[in-house]
Please model this.
Amino acid sequence: MNPTDILLSIAIVGIYTLVHIYLKTNYKNNTEILKLFLEGFSIATLVTGVLYYLIKFIAS
Model:
């Protein structure tokens, strides 16, 4: 994995996580925000990893 792919993956995960938190909470409950952050981060990381390896498999 080259550095550009890593940075792009981090950006995608970060954007998805922020949108996930924004759409699901009103920013008043800190424990709910942390739970949503962890949920969004794990889902986004999983999806990004699957897409990366799928694209790598198709390209080879």
Notes: Helices lie at 3-24, 30-59. DSSP finds two helices and no strands in the chain. Residues 30-59 form the longest helix (30 residues).
